[in-house]
Design brief:
The structure holds two protein chains of two kinds. Chain A is about 25% helix and about 25% strand. A seven-stranded mixed beta sheet of chain A has the order 5-9-3-16-13-14-15, sandwiched between helices. A five-stranded mixed beta sheet of chain A has the order 11-19-18-17-12. Chain A is globular, with a radius of gyration of 27 Å. In chain A, strand 21 and strand 22 form a beta hairpin. By secondary structure, chain A is of the alpha+beta class. Among the domains of chain B are: about 45 residues; about 100 residues, CO dehydrogenase flavoprotein, C-terminal domain (Enolase-like, domain 1, 2-Layer Sandwich). Chain B contains eleven helices and 15 strands. In chain B, helix 5 packs antiparallel against helix 8, helix 9 packs antiparallel against helix 10 and helix 10 packs antiparallel against helix 11. Chain B is globular, with a radius of gyration of 19 Å. Chain B starts with a strand and ends with a helix. The chains are: A alpha+beta, B alpha+beta. Chains A and B meet through strand 3, helix 3, helix 7 and helix 18 of A and helix 11 of B.
């Protein structure tokens, strides 16, 4: 039964009021007493062999008969007016089949209507100007060089400090923070900066489009097949049923593939124009210029505390460089300040500013990574000012509920602290120091992230005559192991092995709607839907068993029922139920890093790393550990290495490949110890699980920065902590009394 | 991409005869292919050296020293027993360059002739490839030259200069030898490196190579140093102190060498030599960070000789 209700949902740290249609899920939650055989146990990825052997077909692997290849011409100027585009020489090149320019492409609104698909004004170096479709990629690339574009250049805005506002600031207040901080006996104030960082998914953005009559099929590397379908249908003026979006395997997105890209529309338009399938994939350079970023921040933070370390007030303001378009507003950089600690007076403000740089997008825990770095750095300074251990100051400010006035379904952060501190040997912290030219430091940071999932998500489970099953669901596996986790859940409910279940996902033409795979939503949203559908199928099987029961033979088991009913198969249906009213479901974590800093070169080596998370039930400890390792890896990159670089004079991207954009390599990584707080969170979801997609990156840069600050005896106000910056901090630490 | 023709060479002389300003030689291709892709190289013809037989051999001869064929890969050089024994700093330098995949195909001669890279100071501390932009419609101006320094980033070059190594260079009709220190500018159009020659080190010789990078793997040196010295009863007789990644070529440090000459290796001598190396290299005055770390790198390398 569906019903309508008003509810608050918090997705990617943004709290929104919405009307939602919900369907009750009668499944009794799997709590700690539930005896599970498959869910909650390590299981190798069901598609691991296909991925490792190359059998898995990613969007980049899709090759269709007669397929053309598209390449995009991009503006070399950060701010300019396109006076004219002459594509005649490109069109004359042998093998070129079509060229899209602003003259012949539909004026489709883009970036929330602030521009169009191809427009006369280009606002960053990398903005789209024209698109070529040719028989092969090389010809398309050659044709780009033959397109004559006349630009009227304008002076770009590149410095966020002097850039104009890019929309309304987002303000939150409780109590009088200014008064509380100003009157506090201990005040810690600081300015913290984080850089623009790139997602660098190993599969670049891209689509393959094919028309069959009035029907359009698109293979897309996306985190939201249904979202792409909706946006693409709107852009092309098509009814939804004529658009099918497929993403069977996906090589990473991290928030940059939440929406329909221009490349998808280009592929569809060129395919229609030429009558041939068209593949439009971004190159690594384009991926670095025009596929989104974590926006840079300049944060100012003031904490007021009592002498015993208890917080009295927090004032947090962040300037967010949302880039040339950035229609989603600033990310919730103030989220951690609002919710991590008990504090009566808090004011946060996120101010978007607009520059002529590549637009930002969501990026794995957007805002929270940056905000946690500033807040947790400042908390360490409060501890120092009060003469307290950093862990102790966090415990003194522990908030059992959401300090905005909500209760949590469960909060296991205290256990995270306890487990992690014991594992890393936190008590050694006070004894660590300098040995020769090596400075040792230990740091920790805490993490909160809304991760309870949400409706709507629907699933269908088909039970075959041989007692195997198929799950149909319109979610997607963006590389996290969703396929395996959903198979485990269905198998649990149906008393099967996970490998007896095939999960068909990533196809709007096959599975019913499920949410986007972002905001740590997938397991906590699609998981309960699959369980409900499997449970429905099991109940039908049980009813049939009663009907099929005969005399002495007794009641048949599920396997016999399946065989007996044959092709009159059982089809179970289920939906994700509503979130509990008045309760918030969040995932928590504490990360601990031990570092060694070279006092003469400023090099940082992470010696040990312990990551502890509370996410309710861990459905698959194997894929969950991989998720944590990947998040920590990404956090290490943000902490020590990565930064998008533009030429400060022209705004052109400089580090546009994986040699120059410094992702961490295996040699940069310490052994990462991954631990989970045991136990389910049955109030959050019926499977007792919460999301884990984003939590593992959130605390990592802060924990590393705190460890380095401990080692060098000085604050570290700017990421990444490249050796030159660390060496400067060492010099500051030496000058300090 | 501009079309080019491709021909396999049978000998270095044939290959050299084919070279001109529009013709590039290719071996491992790890430098040339990216340059073609990003538009900084656009040859009309490419001559493939990999078909020259026996050009990747590595030999040790007590009188002539090490002879390393131009096509020996960095991985070959790093792993070869004679190199490891007779010129350990070369093995260390070659083995720490780039990545295992690149070392498996990149050749020693190609590495010595590779493009210089940009270092940008005063902002993020990165060594960048530079060059123009493949995605943009117009040829890009790339990095702003006024804020960058172009540096030689070859790790083996730094080590080979410290070893006093030479290269044998062939053109269509002559052969000559050239100190590695004169590369790559000393190479004329129409010349190819056929082999690398490192003279035998005298008894008591030892060396150390130190490389500092921002990223621990797959990165160019922010600064590196190769030190090679001959010690007799704990006293330095001859020494070579060469900085890498700080100037357009491996940089010799006579001031540092003078401090080491006749000295016993202790922490104070090593520290003074490190300070002197900074004064030896005027290019360091442009970089606060490099100026700060070079003394430590040099000192550490020297102390490893004990």
């Amino acid at each position: 039964m569906k019903r309508v209700r008003r509810s608050q949902v918090e997705i990617e740290g943004k709290l929104r009021e919405r009307t939602e249609v919900v369907e009750e899920d009668p499944s009794p939650p799997w709590d700690d007493r539930a005896r599970l055989r498959v869910a909650g146990r390590p299981h190798p990825r069901l598609d691991g062999r296909a991925k490792a052997s190359g059998a898995a077909i990613y969007t980049q692997d899709v090759g269709l008969p007669g397929m053309l290849h598209a390449r995009i011409l991009r503006s070399p100027h950060a701010c300019a007016r396109v006076l004219s585009v002459d594509a005649s020489a490109a069109l004359a090149l042998d093998g070129v089949r079509a060229v899209l320019t602003q003259e012949n492409a539909a004026a489709i609104p883009w970036y929330g209507g602030t521009t169009r698909l191809l427009e006369r004004t280009v606002r960053y170096a990398g903005d789209e100007v024209a698109v070529v479709a040719a028989e092969d990629e090389e010809t398309a690339e050659d044709a780009l060089h033959l397109i004559r574009v006349r630009y009227a250049r304008r002076r770009p805005v590149l410095d966020p400090g002097t850039a104009p506002r890019g929309g309304k600031p987002s303000v939150y207040t409780r109590g009088n923070a200014r008064k509380a901080v100003s009157g506090a006996p201990v005040v810690v104030a600081g300015s913290y900066r984080t850089p623009a960082a790139l997602h660098q998914a190993f599969e670049t953005h891209g689509s393959v489009a094919r028309w069959e009559g009035e029907h359009l099929t698109v293979w897309d590397s996306t985190q939201h097949i249904f979202g792409v379908r909706k946006e693409l249908a709107a852009a092309l003026g098509l009814p939804l049923h004529r658009v099918r979006v497929i993403s069977t395997f996906m090589g990473g997105g991290f928030g940059a593939k939440n929406e329909c890209g221009k490349y998808t529309v280009f592929a569809a338009l060129l395919a229609r124009r030429t009558g041939r399938p068209v593949r439009c994939l971004l190159t690594r350079a384009e991926e670095s210029l025009a596929a989104g970023c974590r926006h840079a921040t300049v944060q100012t933070l003031r904490l007021g505390a009592r002498r015993d370390g208890r917080l009295l007030g927090i004032e947090h303001r962040s300037l967010c460089d949302v880039g040339a378009y950035g229609t989603d507003g600033p990310m919730p950089v103030g989220g951690p300040a609002r919710t991590l600690y008990r504090c009566a007076a808090v004011r946060t403000e996120e101010v978007p500013v607009r520059t002529n740089t590549g637009p930002h997008t969501a990026f794995r825990a957007p805002g929270y990574v940056e905000g946690t770095f500033a807040l947790e750095r400042a908390m360490d300074r409060v501890a120092e000012a009060c003469g307290l251990d950093p862990l102790e100051v966090r415990l003194r400010n522990y908030s059992p509920g959401d300090p905005r006035g909500f209760r949590y379904t469960r909060k296991g952060l205290r256990e995270c602290y306890r487990i992690g501190a014991a594992r890393i040997g936190w008590r050694r912290r006070a004894r660590l120091g300098r040995r020769g030219t090596s400075l040792r430091g230990l740091g920790l940071a805490s993490q909160v992230w809304p991760a309870g999932g949400a409706p709507p998500s629907h699933a269908v489970v088909k039970v075959n005559p041989d007692a195997t099953a198929e799950v149909l669901i319109g979610t997607q596996d963006i590389g996290t192991g969703t396929r395996t986790v959903l198979a485990q859940i269905a198998a649990e409910e149906l008393s099967l092995r996970a490998r007896d279940v095939t999960v068909l996902l990533g196809d709007t033409g096959a599975g019913p709607y499920s949410l986007l795979s972002a905001g740590s939503l997938t397991t906590a949203s699609a998981g309960p839907a699959v369980r409900a559908a499997a449970r429905d199928a099991r109940q039908q099987l049980e009813e049939l068993a009663t009907g099929l029961a005969r005399g002495k033979g007794g009641r048949p088991g599920p396997r016999e029922v399946c065989r007996e009913i044959g092709d009159a198969m059982v089809i179970g249906r289920g939906a994700r139920g509503p979130n509990p009213e008045g309760l918030k479901a969040c995932s928590f974590g504490a990360h601990f890093a031990e570092v060694e800093v070279d006092a003469e070169t400023g090099e940082v080596r992470i010696v040990r790393y312990v990551a502890v998370h509370e996410v309710g039930r861990v459905v698959n400890p194997l894929t969950a550990s991989s998720q944590v390792e990947g998040g920590v890896l990404m956090g290490i990159g943000f902490a020590l290495l990565e930064r998008r670089i533009e030429d400060p004079a022209t705004g052109r991207g400089i580090a546009v490949d994986l040699l120059d954009y410094k992702l961490p390599t295996a040699l940069d990584l310490p052994p990462i110890e991954v631990l989970f707080v045991p136990g389910a969170d049955p109030r959050a979801t019926t499977i007792g699980a919460k999301g884990l997609g984003e939590p593992p990156i959130i605390a990592a840069p802060a924990a590393i920065a705190n460890a380095v600050a401990h080692a060098v005896g000085a604050d570290l106000p700017e990421l990444p902590l490249t050796p030159d910056r660390v060496l400067e901090a060492i010099a500051r630490g030496r000058r300090a009394p | 991409m501009r079309p080019f023709s491709h021909a396999d060479a049978g000998t270095f002389a044939d290959a050299a005869a084919a070279l001109d300003r529009r013709t590039s030689a290719i071996a491992g291709g790890t430098d040339l292919v990216p340059a073609i892709k990003d538009g900084t190289a656009a040859p009309d013809r490419i001559v493939n050296l990999k078909t020259i037989p026996g050009a990747d051999a590595i030999h040790w001869d007590p009188r002539a020293g090490l002879r390393i064929g131009a096509l020996a890969t960095l991985a070959d050089v790093a792993a070869h027993p004679a190199v490891r024994r007779r010129a350990p700093i070369l093995a260390e330098a070659a083995g720490g360059a780039a990545t295992p995949q690149i070392r498996n195909v990149a050749t020693i001669a190609g590495n010595l002739c590779q493009r210089r890279r940009w270092i940008v100071d005063g902002g993020p501390l990165y060594v960048l490839k530079g060059g123009s932009h493949p995605t943009f419609g117009e040829a890009g101006e790339g990095l702003d030259v006024s804020r960058g320094t172009r540096v030689c980033v070859s790790d083996p070059a730094t080590a080979l200069v410290a070893l006093g190594a030479w290269v044998r260079v062939l053109s269509a009709n002559r052969s000559r030898v050239l100190p590695v220190a004169h590369l790559p500018d000393g190479l004329r159009v129409g010349e190819l490196i056929a082999e690398v020659l490192a003279p035998p080190a005298p008894p008591g010789a030892r060396g150390a190579y130190e490389k500092l990078t921002v990223r621990k793997g797959w990165d160019f040196a922010v600064a590196s140093v190769a030190v090679q010295a001959v010690l007799a009863r704990g006293v330095v007789r001859i020494s070579r102190v060469i900085l890498g990644g700080v100037a357009g070529k491996p940089w010799e440090c006579p001031g540092a060498e003078a401090i080491l000459a006749g000295a016993r290796l202790d922490a104070s001598v090593a520290a003074r030599a490190g300070e002197a190396a900074v004064d030896d290299c005027p290019a360091l005055s442009r970089s606060t960070y490099r100026r700060a770390v070079v003394p430590a790198l040099v000192r550490r390398a020297i102390l490893r000789l004990r």
